[in-house]
Each structure stands twice: as structure tokens, then as C-alpha cells.
Specification:
Blueprint (H helix, E strand, L loop, with lengths): L1 E6 L5 H7 L5 H8 L4 H22 L7 E3 L5 E3 L6 E7 L2 E7 L4 E6 L5 H7 L2 H9 L3 H22 L7 H5 L5 E5 L3 E6 L13 E4 L7 E3 L2
Parallel strand pairs: 1-9
Antiparallel strand pairs: 1-5, 2-3, 4-5, 6-8, 7-8, 7-10
């Protein structure tokens, strides 16, 4: 398993125009359909990170064709045994590859929203959020819980539905990392060797701060 993260701010429009030539034409077209410049940037960079991961892990020279599963999850058409997932948020892009179904979600720290917590979080999780007096701590914990939920829905290929607790109670291992300004959670490593404190191979090309693993 390998995870790449990077900051989009380091990619100028000129550089992106050069790099987009190296990704699959279908992915390039998908990226260019985005009217929002930042979304377009994130899609291009996500495809580039996927290519780098596939080359490193599976010695692929070119990005394979990407299709959607019946549930809408992106899959590699000709390589069903290789799994991947992408996520982006506010200038950060993350890519994960694995030999088992996987999901990853990265989220810039957002303020604690009681209405969301009441709808999706368990009573114990809500109580912990209420007990956190420091706004930054409550925001980070709230964001971490949400990324744990999202990465699991992305692993199984469903949208946001049902109770967050039922998904978080799934036996699949979920690892959550705190950075200074965002959280990242990934799942799909059940039956793999224990993850070391620094996580799996995380290559932050430009990110200066190092992640901290969090236990839930």
C-alpha cells in the first residue's frame, strides 16, 4: 500500500498544462470538464499521483483505463486486483493504492457542526465533542470522525447514507492521521501487517509538517 499527498499550490497553470499530457486522455478530459479552476487542478494532480503510485507499486508505464463500478466507485478496468482511491480538499490531494479494496478521505479542518454530529455521530462521540472546550480540538476531532466515515463509504462504494456509527463499527481497520491543518483517514488494510507509527509509505512531496497518528 502506498499513499501520496501533495499541496496543489505548488503547481502553476503553466506546469499543469505540461503535466496533463502525461495522464490518460479520458482523465484529462474529465479534469478539463470542471469549470472551477481549483477542482480542475485537483483532478489533474490526483491523476498524476495515481500514475506515480502505479508506476512505483506495479511498474506500470502508462495510466490504465479507469471506469466506474455499478455503485459509482472508480476502478481500473483491466486490473481488477489493483485498488485505488483519491481524495482532495482545499488544496490537498491524496492518492492511495492497495491490493485490497481501500478508501481514503482527506479534509481540511472544518468547524464543529452540532447538527451534523447529531445526525451521524454516536452519543459517545457527541459527548466527547461537547466536552472538548478548545475550538481547534473540537474541530479536529469532528473532522477526523467525518474522514473516518467518508473513507469507509468510499471503500465499499456507497454514498453517505445510514448511521455513521454503523460504518465506523465495521471490522475494517481505519487509520487516522492529524496534520497541522487537516485530517486524513484511510481504510482497507485488514489482515495486513500492523501499521507503524508513521503510517504506511506516505510521501508528502511538498508538505512540511509530519502527521501524527490518532487512536479512536
Amino acid at each position: 500500500m502506498i499513499i501520496y499527498t501533495t499541496d496543489t499550490e505548488y503547481f502553476s497553470e503553466t506546469l499543469l498544462e505540461e503535466l496533463i499530457r502525461y495522464i490518460h486522455p479520458d482523465r484529462a478530459a474529465y479534469a478539463l470538464r470542471a469549470s472551477n479552476p481549483e477542482v480542475r487542478r485537483q483532478r489533474i494532480i490526483g491523476s498524476l499521483l495515481l500514475m506515480i503510485a502505479l508506476r512505483k507499486e506495479y511498474q506500470m508505464e502508462n495510466c490504465p483505463v479507469i471506469e466506474s463500478s455499478p455503485l459509482g466507485k472508480p476502478v481500473l478496468r483491466d486490473y481488477p486486483y489493483i485498488h485505488f482511491n483519491l481524495s482532495h480538499s482545499d488544496g490537498v490531494v491524496a492518492c492511495m493504492t492497495s491490493d485490497v479494496p481501500c478508501g481514503i478521505d482527506v479534509q481540511h479542518c472544518v468547524p464543529y457542526r452540532e447538527s451534523v454530529a447529531n445526525r451521524y455521530f454516536s452519543e459517545a462521540e457527541q459527548c466527547k465533542l461537547h466536552d472538548l472546550k478548545d475550538p481547534h480540538e473540537s474541530s479536529m476531532y469532528f473532522t477526523a470522525l467525518w474522514t473516518r466515515f467518508e473513507c469507509q463509504t468510499k471503500l465499499i462504494g456507497t454514498g453517505i447514507s445510514g448511521s455513521i456509527s454503523s460504518i465506523l463499527d465495521d471490522p475494517t481497520e481505519i487509520t487516522t492521521l492529524y496534520f497541522s491543518d487537516f485530517c486524513m483517514s484511510f481504510s482497507g488494510v485488514l489482515n495486513h501487517p500492523p501499521i507503524p507509527m508513521k503510517g504506511p509509505e506516505i510521501l508528502g512531496f511538498f508538505r512540511r509538517n509530519y502527521p501524527k497518528k490518532v487512536s479512536f
